[in-house]
Every structure is written in C-alpha cells, then in structure tokens.
Amino acid sequence: MQDFQLEKVNDYLLACHSRDEKLCLRFYISAYEELNKLFGLLGSLFGFISSDVQSKLEILSTYLADSENATAFSTVSGMLRCEKESGKLVDSKYISGSRTLLRLHRALGFLVDFLERISTLSLSDSLSKVCYLSYRSTLGNYHPQLIRLMVKGAVYTLSSKKDLLDKINKDNKEEEYYNKLLVEVVKNGRKVYQLTDALYTFHNLHDLP
Fold first, then answer.
1. Is residue 90 part of a domain?
2. Which pLDDT does position 20 carry in this prediction?
3. pTM (two decimals)
C-alpha cells in the first residue's frame, strides 16, 4: 500500500466540489481511495471497513469506465438522476451506484468528524475516545447493535495522535502544519458531504435499502 497523503485528500475533495455543485464523481472516488489508506494506518481491526470501502469504490469506478454510463455518471448529480429516472433503483438485480455511494456518503460523515476531532487533540492524546464519539454520532446511527459493539472494541486499540502523525509525516513537518491541513480537509470534506446530502434529499433517496 502506498503512503497515505493528507494533501492529496484535500486536493481531491476541493476538486470534487470546486467546479459546480453537481460533484465530480471521479474526484470523489480519488479522495476516498486516499482516505481508505487511513483505515490501514488505524490497525488490522479496521481492515473489514477498508475492504468494504474498496469494494464500493470498485463498483463506482466500473460505472465510470463504461462508455454507456460515463457521461451520466461523471457527476454525483447525474448518477442519481439517471438511476432514478430510468427506474433501475427498483430492480433488485441491478447494482446501484446511488445505493453504493450512499454508504460511502455516510462513512464520509464519520471521517470528516473524526479528522476534525483529531485536529483538536494534543500529540499525547489517544485517538480512541474521539474515534468512538465520531462513529457514534454519525455512521453508528446506521449500524445494528452487533456492529456497534465491534467498533467500540476496535477503537480501544488505537494509539495516540503522535503515533498517527509519525506514520504519515514522511517529510518531518511540524504538528502545526498538519493541524492547519486537517482544518482544510475538514472544510472541503464537509462541503462535499453537505452537497451530496442535499442531492440525496432533492431526489428523495436517503432511504435506499
């Protein structure tokens, strides 16, 4: 696995929403591919999350690579509209991009909240408590009790903010550099999250099974 680069996450998130509010799907996927590396840094117990995210990214990437879908699926807005108007969302055999993205969207809410909390920690602080607080207030709302208990146990294996920064800081940058970068990532991540949420609301697709 290549090194996780927070700078790339920020660049991709910014590119995703900077052109218009339709949201570029390719940059959304690119941002998530980079964010998914973060789960690998958090420990083996987060491997099941990483695998699930990767499988969903592959579904979306397949649609983008298909010339029949490439234009409609170039933006999040276009994909939701195309699948809804074509009636594909009621086809149980159809692997829906909208349904797939909805799961990633919910997880993005967790990641943005978690990164924001990390930015406020001192170097010696553990990531465990803030990770669980972020999970409980976001993604945990969509999981059954068994999954919530598994996550609660998994987060207590997390180390400190310093240990995480040591893993991603290959250029010996100061902590302040990453705190400022985290603020930018959170700002752009929240923008993408809010715009995506608004699109699902507009198309009435928040409750896709």
1. yes
2. 82
3. 0.94
